[in-house]
Structure formats: C-alpha cells, structure tokens
Amino acid sequence: MTNISPPPSRIYLLRHAAAQQAAPGQRDFDRPLTDDGFAAAEIVADKAADKHYEPDLIISSTALRCRQTADAMRRVVSPSTEFRFVDALYNGTLEIYLSLIASQTDQESVMLVAHNPTIEQTLESLIGHEALVGALPRGFPTAGLAVVDSTSTGWVLADFVTE
What we know:
Layout: E1 10-15, H1 35-50, E2 57-61, H2 64-74, E3 82-86, H3 94-102, E4 109-114, H4 118-127, H5 129-135, E5 145-151, E6 154-161
Parallel strand pairs: 1-4, 2-3, 2-4
Antiparallel strand pairs: 1-5, 5-6
C-alpha cells in the first residue's frame, strides 16, 4: 500500500460519469457525458453533499467528460473549494495520480476526477488489493466516488458513493 504523508488526510477519487461513444472523427478526449451520465454525476454530487464530503481542492482531468463531472461537484461544494484542471490526468499513469495527490501538502482533503483504469489502480495502491476486491468486486463504476481516509496504519476506504 502507498504511504502519502503529510496531508491530505482524506482523498476522494471520483471516476467520471458515463460518456458517449465517440462520434465519427471525434477525439476520445472530447466525448461528453450521456444524459444518464449527467444525471449520475448530479446524484453522486448530491449524495456527497448530504454526507458533508467537501474537498479543499478538486483536481480534474481536462477531458470533457471529467470537466462535466467536476462541474456537478462545483454546484455542491463551498465557493472556497479550489478547482484545478490538469492535462496529465488524461492517459496518466498511477505514478502521476499518486504524485498529484502527494504534492498537495497544504490541503487537508483532495479529490481527483479522472479515468479508469488508473483511478481504480490508485484506490488499490492506497487500500490494497484485498480491500479493493472486497469493496468493489465488479470494479470501479462510472460516477463512483471513493472516500479514503488516512489512519495510523495506512489508508482505509471509509465510504463508496454511487448513484
């Protein structure tokens, strides 16, 4: 399991909601959310707000589907929540994802809005394979939000929010 210290003490990992298939000639990067994807992103954002899950910083991939998913969160978080859009999350490696989280030493909580399979690999790296399979036997779903807390013994999956 990965050790990230000092803060953040809470990490939110949000996989973008369901996206449309690429139209002929459309880049994967430019695929928007489906209507169901927009609805799922809003539902997960509302559930996160109901549970008072409010990151200090939201870092999102610049891909359209991630920006649209992050916009659903923007509606429910504090106006002081900072948003950053980072190109490196699109097609980024596990090392890039973990590095982005670890570099946020002035934030108590950070959210990544990003892509599978790397978002799932990031969760697995934090909590371990057995905990991942136990919590998500069918994998990390679209619009899924993992809430991961730091403890004295490492990272634990505190909650998983879906639509």
